[in-house]
Specification:
Chromosomal Replication Initiator Protein Dnaa, Chain: A; 4 strands; about 5% strand
Length: about 180
């Protein structure tokens, strides 16, 4: 067995063991959702590059060219998309510096400002909220719950992970970032 196969097997075995022990003690299978997705090939991480791909249908055009999220452009549409990207990335527990670095080397304070702007726009602008939900729904569609979830799971799922709550369609609570 080569090292990559061994790593995948160990990861899968650890998660499977955790889920089974949790079921024995609590009585239902937990949903294992963080920034990872479990498949037969092991755990795949939703990277920032993969997250950015969910924004492509919403990116504006300028002079017949698509404006990327990391562009040094202040068009309202691109700024709003950056705010959504920062909020979702932070909810996945990425640190501020990698989020800023990914979008053109922005400072961590820019990321914080983007998250604050997200909060304000989410509460006041219904079009912004619709854009946010369309991105979340696309992520939810492409990253369904893990293969370890069973149909006999209890109806009340744990709600400790912010990304999990967002994917379930709940309104974001901002106390997670304070």
């Amino acid at each position: 067995m080569n090292p990559a196969e061994y790593k995948k097997k160990v990861e899968y075995d650890l998660i499977t063991d955790f889920v089974n022990r949790f079921y024995e003690k609590v009585g239902y299978h937990p949903t294992v959702v963080t920034k990872h997705r479990i498949t037969d090939d092991g755990i795949t991480v939703l990277t920032l590059s993969e997250l950015e791909k969910f924004f492509e249908p919403h990116l504006p055009k300028k002079y017949n060219k698509i404006v990327r999220l990391g562009a040094k452009d202040r068009m309202r549409t691109i700024v709003e998309l950056r705010c959504i990207f920062f909020f979702i990335g932070r909810s996945m527990r990425y640190n501020l510096k990698p989020l800023g670095d990914h979008l053109g080397g922005r400072d961590h304070t820019t990321v914080l400002h983007g998250i604050r702007t997200f909060r304000n726009l989410y509460e006041t602008d219904p079009l912004f909220r619709d854009k946010y939900y369309s991105i979340i729904n696309q992520i939810k569609k492409d990253y369904e719950p893990s293969t370890l979830d069973n149909t006999d799971q209890a109806p009340d799922k744990p709600k400790s992970n912010l990304l999990f709550r967002l994917l379930q369609g709940e309104d974001p609570t901002f106390k997670d970032f304070d």
